[in-house]
Amino acid sequence: MSPHTTMTESRLESELAQRGVRMTRQRRAILATIESAERHLDAAQILRRASRVEASVNRVTVYRTIGLLKRHGLIDELDLMHVTGDAHFYERRPEHDHIHVTCLRCGQVIEFESEHLAQLRAEVEQQCGFRVDVARTEIGGYCGGCQAMPEATAATRATRANKKGAEDARACGDAAHIA
Amino acid sequence: MSPHTTMTESRLESELAQRGVRMTRQRRAILATIESAERHLDAAQILRRASRVEASVNRVTVYRTIGLLKRHGLIDELDLMHVTGDAHFYERRPEHDHIHVTCLRCGQVIEFESEHLAQLRAEVEQQCGFRVDVARTEIGGYCGGCQAMPEATAATRATRANKKGAEDARACGDAAHIA
DNA sequence: CTACAGATGCAACAGAGTTTCACCTTGCAG
DNA sequence: CTGCAAGGTGAAACTCTGTTGCATCTGTAG
Fold this sequence. Notes:
Two copies of one chain form a homodimer. Chain A has two domains: 1-93, Orthogonal Bundle (Arc Repressor Mutant, subunit A), CATH 1.10.10; 96-179, Ferric-uptake regulator, C-terminal dimerisarion domain (Dna Ligase, domain 1, 2-Layer Sandwich), CATH 3.30.1490. In chain A, 35% of the residues lie in helices and 17% in strands. Chain A contains six helices and six strands. In chain A, the strands form two sheets. Chain A has a three-stranded antiparallel β-sheet with strand order 1-3-2. Chains A and B meet through β4, α5 and β6 of A and β4, α5 and β6 of B. Chain A binds a DNA duplex through α2 and α4.
């Protein structure tokens, strides 16, 4: 660990070091941001947070570092049903596959684990002859709180509403994570 | 059916009529294009093909019609792992859920059905308290043909190569569809 | 046939992500 | 410890996908 930073060496950082990838102040800030996030961040949010630690971080470097981590299979890319726009969200690749269930009205995201995921992946490898690299299941629907609202119907839902909303998601009364 | 067109009324068209949605020449051309496609098309490809039938179709109308169909749950949106760029692809919503398995090297797409999909959906509805509207599983990996090539490894794969390639995908020796 | 709600085309816009290139830094060799 | 080359960075310009505002046109109910 460098003497001029107070950041602990993150797991992503040591994974990259193992692979002989050069480490920089900017990358360290970006990796730490992704790892310490309490929810899924998009590139702009990663930039904003990483800048607070290391002011010199640039938009372009965030994209390049995300690309690096994706190529090494260390993070996964999510759409979260594009409820809040066209950006992609990122998370450290977890030990066990899980899916993301997003409320199309309030934007709440739930992570959910199931045995069916591993079974599905195995089926694909066997029956399609593919070597599976990345598997992503996303579900869009309406959470308990939003089902109660009359306007939460398929033909009238407000996809892409709240596009410019605050960084923090609106809660719906439920806990944000299951499993 | 209008007397001045040789197009048969498509299923999407009658679905929209049932819902009281106004039908136009442009929409008819777009619907027919989506329904007759032998593979998944993105907005630009839909525009190109629809223009051959109805020259007045505009980019914006394609996007608006896609939005209309999505809101009514008549088509599904796919990323196909963004192998060829950032565009989205569309397909008529099928009777049975299926997943899309995309080769990260050659771009081949296989559709695959599995019982695990319905089971997963049921689990989510029960355990998350969500009303599920749309479920999407996408898998990226390497097909049989591309696994044989030495450069098809995770850290060196050419994601986004062939971005400006011809409209028709490169085959890999395998059939394009299973299930 | 008429009126009008709603659809269209065009142009301008917006957001996400990429590329180019001159400059800077890391990590290794000596 | 120092020099140096490979590789990373920032800034600006760019590409691509998709959206919006507005004037005009058209499908459909009456």
